[in-house]
Amino acid sequence: MKRLLLSLLAVLSLNASVKAQLVHLDVQYGENSLERQVLDIYAPSDARSLPVVFWIHGGGWQTGDKASVQSKPQALGEKRFVFVSTNYRLLPSVEMGTIIRDVAKSIHWVHDHIEEYGGDPKRILVMGHSAGAQLAALICTDDRYLKAEGLSFEIIKGCVPVDGDTYDVPAIITTAETRRRVHHQPQATFGHREKFGNDPNLHIDFSAVTHVARDKGIPPFLILYVNDHPDNSAQAQRFGTVLKEAGVNTTLHGAKNTDHSKLNDDLGLPDDPATKVLFDFLEQVILGGSE
Q1: What is the pTM of this model?
Q2: How many domains does the chain have?
Q3: Between the CA of residue 254 and those of 66, 122, 190, 236, what are the distances in Å?
Q4: What is the CATH number for 219?
Q5: 197 lies in a domain?
Q6: What confidence score (pLDDT) does residue 20 get?
């Protein structure tokens, strides 16, 4: 009953241009009713077999919430997509591997149930911002997580990581720690090294670049990043090069006159350059030129 009331309130709060969108909040995807294993679904009221955008929020793997979606659900609903935004458990309550497995479990739930909400379980596009970009990229390159859920890359039609800095975890650790060291600054007490585990092998294993290879069925990628950010642009370009060398259909877009938060906040807004690139990518890999 609580979930129904929340959904009705969400529908009533939408503006006139998106009143036809149905919203289902706090849908449980786990088996043990854990507080963070929930997701939200935004679907056109007449949705039937529509492609699905699966969104992973950022927040440094420590904070953030599925409700932080700005105008994305409305904009993508108007483009005839079902939009799903997921939560996952956070550091330091759980370790990084558990977070990734939560995301895979959420995708499993979407695959099994999204048809009930008008979505097509065989046409899922994975997106994420910041920490969510790392999670999206890893889920779409390291197939072990989906395989553990009985799934494969076949259902993933595209991946859009947005301004991540950890597609190559050892590289960002070295970059950040060297910068602090040469400037005689103290090292972070809970930086990337600690977040990804103190074992250097884990740093490699949690890096999307590690798992890119030919003939794995890795889906097409659109990598959005802030053009003027030295670390994030370097990570995006490195990841893009690795994908292209493996024969993966890859597009990179370095957004100008923006920053880490604004790039994400503006996605879905009219006249936003990155949004146009995103919609073109969706048209190419998801819609195939038609609805």
Answers
A1: 0.93
A2: 1
A3: 25, 30, 29, 9
A4: 3.40.50.1820
A5: no
A6: 85
